[in-house]
Amino acid sequence: MRPIKRNFSLLFVLFFLSVLCSCKKERAIKKPVAKMVLVYMEANNDLRYDALNSINMMEKGAAALNGTLLVYIKTNSTNSYLLKIKPDADENRIVSDTVKVFNSSNPSDANFLHNVVQYAQTEFSAQSYGLILWSHATSWAPPSGQLKTFSFGEDSGKEMDIIDLKNALPNNLEFLIFDACSMGGVEVLYEFKDKAKYIIASPTETLSESFPYQNIVPLLFQPSDQLTAIAQAYYDHYNSFTDDLRSASVVLVKTGELAGLASQMKALILSQKKYGDQFISVGVQRLDYTANFPVPNYDFGDFLNHNFSATDLTAIDQQLGKVILYKAATPSFLGVPIRTFSGLTSYIPYQDDKNLTYYKKLQWYTSAGLSILFDK
C-alpha cells in the first residue's frame, strides 16, 4: 500500500481502550455458520492508523451479516489481537470484541500466520472461508540481500517471502483478497492458484485508504458469483474522485483457469522462442508507480503484444478471458496515465538478471515455459 498520512491518534487511543473494555472469551460455534471471513492486518508500520480506520469501516458495514467477520490486527511491538467484528455506526470508536490476545507476535512470520488462520477456522468453523491479506506488499520480489525479505506485510522491518506465505495458507479458501500493493501479477496469482477458487488483487499499488469496507463487508458474505461486486465497489469508490485519489486498479481471477493460461503461454514460447532469446521490454506499459519499486511490473497483455504477433495470440487471449472475471483501472495512477490495461501484470526476465535465480523458484517460471529461454 502507498501510505497517505492521516491524523488518527484519537482513534488509536480509543481502539486500545475498547480492547481493554471488550476483551472476553468467545465460545466456539458448534454449528458452522455459512461463511467466515478473516482479515489479516499487519499494521505495525506506517499504516497503523489506516488499519484502525478500516476496522471502523468494517463495523459500519457489518449489520446483518450471514456469517462471521474476524480481524487479526497488530499495530505496536507488544500485543496483537483477534477481533470479532460487530456493527457500530460510530466512526470514532471500535467496539468489536477481542476473542484472543497474542503476546509478542511476529505477523510477518509464516508459521505465525498459519497458526492464526488455523485458530480462526477451528474456533469459528464455517461452510466456506474467505481471507483478506492487508498490509504493504511488493509483488513477488525476492530477498533483498539484507536481513529481511520482500513480498507481503511489514512488522518492524520484517517482511514475508511470497513462497512462505503461499505455504502458510490452507487450501480451502473460497476467495482470497489482497488488500495490498501490486499482487495482481500473473506470477503471484499462479503461486496462490491452489489456495482459493477466486482471487481479487490490484495490479498496481493500492492507496492506504484501502477497500471501502463500509460498502464491501456485506458483499463478502454473498455467493461467490457475486464477487464481481466487491471488485467493482473498489473501483467505483476510487474512480469517483477527481484528484490523485482517482488511482486504482483491480482484477478478479478464477484460479481454476490459470493452469490453462500457463499452458497457452508455454505453447506460445515453444513455437516462437528458443534458448537465449530476449523478450522486448522497451515501450511495454509499466504498472508500478512507486520510486525504487523492487521489481518492474509490466502489463501482461501489452507484454504479449510487444513480443508476439496478433495472429499468434488468439488462443492465449481467449484463455485470458476465462481467467479474468472482472478488471478495471482508473485512467491514471497518481497522475501517470494508464494507456493500456489487460488486468494482469508480469515480470520480464532477462539474461544476467539479478532476480532470475529467485524467479526460477516461482511456479509460473516453469509452467509457463519461461525456462525454455534460460535453462539448457
Overview of this structure, please?
- This protein is α/β, with parallel strands linked by helices.
- It has one domain.
- Helices cover 32% and strands 22% of the residues.
- The chain is built from 13 helices and 15 strands.
- The strands form four sheets. Strands 4-3-2-1-5-8-9-10-12 form a nine-stranded mixed sheet, sandwiched between helices. A two-stranded antiparallel ribbon has the order 6-7. The protein has a two-stranded antiparallel sheet with strand order 11-15.
- β1 (33-42), α2 and β2 (68-74) form a beta-alpha-beta unit.
- α3 (110-123) runs parallel beside α4 (162-168).
- The longest helix is centred in the last third of the chain and has 15 residues, at 258-272.
- The protein is globular and about 60 Å long.
